[in-house]
Amino acid sequence: MRIGVLTAGGDCPGLNAVIRSVVHRAVAGHGDEVIGFEDGFKGLLDGRHRKLDLDAVAGILSRGGTILGSSRLERARLREACETSKDHARDYGIDVLIPIGGEGTLTAARMLSDAGLPIVGVPKTIDNDISSTDRTFGFDTAVGVATEAMDRLKTTAESHQRVMVVEVMGRHAGWIALESGMAGGAHGICLPERPFEIDALVKMVEERFSRGKKFAVICVAEGAHPAEGTMEYKKGEIDQYGHERFTGIGNRLAAELERRLGKEARPVILGHVQRGGTPTAYDRVLATRFGWHAVEAAHRGDFGMMTALRGTDITMVPLAEAVTELKTVPVDRMDEAESVF
Amino acid sequence: MRIGVLTAGGDCPGLNAVIRSVVHRAVAGHGDEVIGFEDGFKGLLDGRHRKLDLDAVAGILSRGGTILGSSRLERARLREACETSKDHARDYGIDVLIPIGGEGTLTAARMLSDAGLPIVGVPKTIDNDISSTDRTFGFDTAVGVATEAMDRLKTTAESHQRVMVVEVMGRHAGWIALESGMAGGAHGICLPERPFEIDALVKMVEERFSRGKKFAVICVAEGAHPAEGTMEYKKGEIDQYGHERFTGIGNRLAAELERRLGKEARPVILGHVQRGGTPTAYDRVLATRFGWHAVEAAHRGDFGMMTALRGTDITMVPLAEAVTELKTVPVDRMDEAESVF
Amino acid sequence: MRIGVLTAGGDCPGLNAVIRSVVHRAVAGHGDEVIGFEDGFKGLLDGRHRKLDLDAVAGILSRGGTILGSSRLERARLREACETSKDHARDYGIDVLIPIGGEGTLTAARMLSDAGLPIVGVPKTIDNDISSTDRTFGFDTAVGVATEAMDRLKTTAESHQRVMVVEVMGRHAGWIALESGMAGGAHGICLPERPFEIDALVKMVEERFSRGKKFAVICVAEGAHPAEGTMEYKKGEIDQYGHERFTGIGNRLAAELERRLGKEARPVILGHVQRGGTPTAYDRVLATRFGWHAVEAAHRGDFGMMTALRGTDITMVPLAEAVTELKTVPVDRMDEAESVF
Amino acid sequence: MRIGVLTAGGDCPGLNAVIRSVVHRAVAGHGDEVIGFEDGFKGLLDGRHRKLDLDAVAGILSRGGTILGSSRLERARLREACETSKDHARDYGIDVLIPIGGEGTLTAARMLSDAGLPIVGVPKTIDNDISSTDRTFGFDTAVGVATEAMDRLKTTAESHQRVMVVEVMGRHAGWIALESGMAGGAHGICLPERPFEIDALVKMVEERFSRGKKFAVICVAEGAHPAEGTMEYKKGEIDQYGHERFTGIGNRLAAELERRLGKEARPVILGHVQRGGTPTAYDRVLATRFGWHAVEAAHRGDFGMMTALRGTDITMVPLAEAVTELKTVPVDRMDEAESVF
């Protein structure tokens, strides 16, 4: 069997672990041939590809990024790109294509699949917002980086009697904010799923200080926004990929808190640090299992599907089902955290 | 409501996170009172306890160990201890007892529950071998520590053309070896669940060297043992708690490999480093959720149960069900790892 | 002997290690009494202090922040504060005061010393810019945090063909940028000591991309600024403590690079994460040695001095000498880095 | 100029950083050619070498191990090897050889230099025991790994009322034990430089427990040994490289403490984990500076010398001076630590 593999969309720790696992299982396990396309669908469109054998993936398990490179596909060019991709995949003799990517990539994958190309998808998002899978790799690493930052900030906040506002990733789903906020012991968590009440946040911080506590840490998702009419705020622009640009809720919230509290409030914007570097053990295992099962699915002819974690099992779910709706944080998870405003 | 809490058995990162979460939910959420017993059931038997308010649990989320101390209960004294515990719990006006512990503790908890004491258990084991829950806290931290050690050992093994044998925890279940072996890219994994074939291990290493690879890493669970008749080996003694002492499979395997391969093979025994220190974000979140749900179960009168992770949900399962059998590594998980011998 | 200790100025990993070491050496070694003043000189002025015995410092060696709290002293109130401090120190029967702090604190310390109060200073700055000492504690931790961030950013930059601009601390001295830039393999380093040439930076990045490299990382100190006339730039305001506010060189440099290169350039502002959390082993050892030698100096009557690292030795240098000039990055250190623009 | 480079002896984080720095400075800075010999002097003897250009060293700064491989030279073959090496170096047109290694390597380097080969050495030892340099790279990483292990062990020791004995590297010099013991807050430190008093250790632990402390951590160098007649002990064998094999002081000390104290005492042998993996920022900077200055020395014709750190400067010292005596821990450093037995 000749397997094509590509990585597309934003960076995500664990991509290399999937690539390595696909190659190990396919080449060593089944005697397949694996072709890697460079820079996502662009490489498939342009014909930039290389053979991936065992040596090509040696030592990459613990490396962040993707040895294949990545790119985003503009939404407008999606349909055209699908046609070309399909033709090229056939030109290169690809029996099955394993695209590893997020919502956009899986949508493209579904279109390719509908157009007749054998596809087995592997979901990827550090935001953990793909439905049909309990978790996605990269998320655990991002949560770990954000938690470590909050651990560090707490001691400095405590010594200097100050409020820290930590902005973490999460445009439409607040999973990183929720879990790193819980793990980092944030006193307030603001999620895209629930417009936050600035008055309640201010009151919580004031109560902490009145109880003799000397600091507070607020964890805010980049996509969080205040309840209407409670704080000056304007929506972000829409970028060329159809994403709303959310810039600066961390900065704005810190400024607003400082103004209302009369205490120092400092923003820390974690940004791309959350996306890069060595994946956690959890993410390496999940990514490795996804890769292994993607190859098995390909050999079973289980096309138009993607790998998914359900409980402790890896199962296959239809691509169609996977991309219909975003998995957002449900209310009962907010209740557990006890600090979602 | 008056809630008693205690931690028993071996150390496990996340214990403090459970204690903190129980106190937060009970005291701040429900206006309960929380009493902590010191050194596990011993403190309950001896009447050593202290009140746990919000200040008592400040800053402990990220700390390893347990602020309450722990101890193991000798199996022989279990029944007697249960009777006394029950009486004492009533003397202290405990409406519900939340014991946080492993198999032994949960067995004791079940006996206490059968004897009429309201109990909500929280499972704890770094070995991840309690059935009825997808995962237990502490496991992710242990896997992380073992993976980081393998990351470090790989570079030194590679530079010096040597075989490294890393012994990790896991007496009866090989979850730590399986997942850290996968995450650390171990070339061989030996689990308690499957007697390993020393010949096959030797052959794998020889093939690696013949392909120009300069090193190999073997990850072995402390409870792993060779297939009968393949290597000199004797079973460990039974200690006073009913556990078999497994000492030294790492050392013995390294010696055997060195003898057969004619190459340097060095053992590294990770030991207690896996059990201590700051829990990972994953373990802090899981432990916090367990604590929260234990208090909710207590308020619902959901006694004789323990918290469990199923998929992404925390559910309650009967203690009776939880301790009947050990959750060991199934064959399909070994297949995925591709390097279990 | 009755020793007063206080921590002042910005946060710095290792402060607790100094406090612990002072207490250990003084109490256990000499049978002294140690009094800790809260929130820096403020506590000395307000009479807020507490006894520090061995139990009070148990477990703090690895903790960031300062158990005594800190504050900054406004420059305008310095002389007045010194008078009051001197009187209070006598009121509390302090035989020697050990202030742990940066340039401002050591200047105050020198004034107090000149006014007749027995003082042994301990220098503290994550910026490493105090002359007379080879290194200060906290610096190694800050460099470590910044280096780890660059390690993470490199993989994501590489996969997405992007320029990353990492802003690190350093208002007047670029030591953190220099050493984290070298350790993180930054392709460009911008220091306060040398106005950077934006044209040369742009050219370097273009040459990298033309050689097939897919990314570049620029490490910029918060106090760096462009060579005159080369890029739009205005100086920051002076804050109430006499410090120039440098905000945003990272953001501005990223925007300028993106405009000139026609490639994505993303800023990452590390901020307070560099100041907090567990100190590295290096910083713990240096802080511990400083504390030990401060107590020894106090017992020798070596007043008006501060501890300093010279080579591998801890020596005492006059406070007068210590605060006369800032230790900036010399040209030969820039040459070694090979990437200072 | 044509520069040969090789790495020899035990593994040490930072070796790749030196290689990279030599190549960067030589190739990009001076237009030189760099040849790397594989597996230390063996590669020079066997003629196994490869060209090292900028691409060959891309991405290795943060990687442990050595891309060139390493080997130990048997002491008996030293003189013969030198002759052959000298001839081969001339055959390959090497203008200067930069060997990176420890005491054995530098001794060989000195012999080669005396025999007329232009040599610039770079000292390497995680043990930090080479005189003439304040520090060597790799040491900081080893201390960091050992300190992190002690941080982890402390929480588990505290919760379970147990003594932990941590054996760290250091055959003849106790620097790693001293500094990680200080940084990890060990209550007892045993060094090769001072035979330890088991009675005093036992007394210290008993006093701790009598003061209500629930644990103790002892940090012991692998080369430490008890004062004569105080504890059963036999010296190790001499291996083929002339090193005494010290195996098991950690295990033996734990057993002895358990016997005398009647409390659980557990050994943890850190072993090779200390030698591998990502170097700390400190070690990367020091290694990078050594590489840079080695090339500069080569261009100045400063042969028969090695790089050394003196205070904050890199200087050149004669190889002859460097290897005459081992740098051991002096008494005043033991006094500072306050817990050396």
From TrEMBL, chains A, B, C, D:
Enzyme class, broadest EC rank: transferase
Keyword Transferase: yes
InterPro entries: ATP_PFK, ATP_PFK_prok-type, Phosphofructokinase_CS, Phosphofructokinase_dom, Phosphofructokinase_III, PKF_sf
One Gene Ontology term, aspect cellular component: 6-phosphofructokinase complex
Keyword Nucleotide-binding annotated: yes
Subcellular localization(s) per the UniProt record: Cytoplasm
Alphabetized UniProt keyword annotations: ATP-binding, Cytoplasm, Glycolysis, Kinase, Magnesium, Metal-binding, Nucleotide-binding, Transferase
Superkingdom field: Bacteria
Binding positions for Mg(2+) per the UniProt entry: E103
Site (Important for substrate specificity) residue list: G104
EC number: 2.7.1.11
Pfam families documented for this protein: PFK
Active-site residues (renumbered): D127
Pathway annotation: Carbohydrate degradation; glycolysis; D-glyceraldehyde 3-phosphate and glycerone phosphate from D-glucose: step 3/4
Catalytic activity: beta-D-fructose 6-phosphate + ATP = beta-D-fructose 1,6-bisphosphate + ADP + H(+)
GO biological process, one term: fructose 6-phosphate metabolic process
Known function: Catalyzes the phosphorylation of D-fructose 6-phosphate to fructose 1,6-bisphosphate by ATP, the first committing step of glycolysis.
UniProt xrefs under PANTHER family: ATP-DEPENDENT 6-PHOSPHOFRUCTOKINASE 3, PHOSPHOFRUCTOKINASE
Record-stated family: Belongs to the phosphofructokinase type A (PFKA) family. Mixed-substrate PFK group III subfamily.
NCBIfam families: PFK_mixed, PRK03202.1
UniProt subunit comment: Homodimer or homotetramer.
Name used for this protein in its record: ATP-dependent 6-phosphofructokinase
